[in-house]
Amino acid sequence: MTTDPEKHGAQTDFAKKMSYGDYLDIDTILSAQHPLSDAHDEMLFIIQHQTSELWMHLMLHELAAARANIAANHLPEAFKKLARVSRIMEQLNNAWDVLRTMTPSDYTTFRDQLGMSSGFQSLQYRLIEYALGNRNLAMLKPHAHDVTASARLQAELSEMSLYQTVLTLAAGQGHDVPGDLIAAPANAPHQANDAVRAMWATVYNDPATHWTLYEMGEKLVDLEDYFRRWRFNHVTTVERVIGFKRGTGGTGGVDYLKKMLSVELFPELWHVRTEL
User: Using only C-alpha atoms, what is the Rg of the chain?
Assistant: First the structure.
């Protein structure tokens, strides 16, 4: 059966109206893939990373708004945004399944074309890590050549991290949070702190009394859970495709990525579970 959309009220003349493609700037997006070889799988590789960058762009949008919501004590709005960030991480995790259809033989047909480019150079990934609290200043170096990128990273470092914002909220509710942890924006990765773990123990031992912080804690654990899965999927995908070769950016490849698996964003929220 042939269906004419006009008979159902659909607009079909877009000569003078904004269309779907116009609104989304589809032509620009679909013309942004420029393979440097004739290898079939290079298109997959490019689109995988470009779509990941789009999702990360949305993550940064949501994380910035969530931090502002928490600082303003608008917690229901913050919970919604943090839940969305976790769902975005789920999308990023699912994308590895597509990339894993590329075999080592496929990758070798275009790997040399990548030069020294590598995912660890992603500005948006670094901004996400800094926003979440993993503020490793050594990772400013890959962006030092780019004035705009460096400015964005410094702007992020001038803000309280998401976790600092949450700890400030806890302090405002009367909980004992070390002042030095929330006195100024962090300039180093957050390290596990016994007083913060004790604070979370108070919250988790009496959720009814501390419900908003209890829910906040679970939102953060959910987010980091997905983030850990993303790192693990990254490691296994790289090992499956290149084994233990060095990464294109000069890192140790799988060995380097495995070290990243030990990074904890919100350590006290994980450690406190042992004592509950």
Answer: 22
- How many angstroms separate the CA atoms of 143 and 157, rounded? 14
How far is it, in rounded angstroms, from Cα 276 to Cα 270?
11
User: Domains of the chain: which residue ranges?
Assistant: 41-275
Q: What is the pLDDT along the chain (276 residues), one digit of tens a residue?
A: 667 666 666 676 667 788 889 999 999 999 999 999 999 999 999 999 999 999 999 999 999 999 999 999 999 999 999 999 999 999 999 999 999 999 989 988 988 888 767 766 899 999 999 999 999 999 999 999 999 999 999 999 999 999 999 999 999 999 999 999 999 999 999 999 999 999 999 999 999 999 999 999 999 999 999 999 998 888 888 888 766 555 555 555 566 666 767 789 999 999 999 998
Contacts (Cβ under 8 Å, ≥6 apart) of 164: 133, 181, 182, 185, 186, 190
Report the topology of domain 41-275: Methane Monooxygenase Hydroxylase; Chain G, domain 1 (1.20.58)
Which pTM value belongs to this model? Answer: 0.89
At 100 the three-state DSSP class reads coil
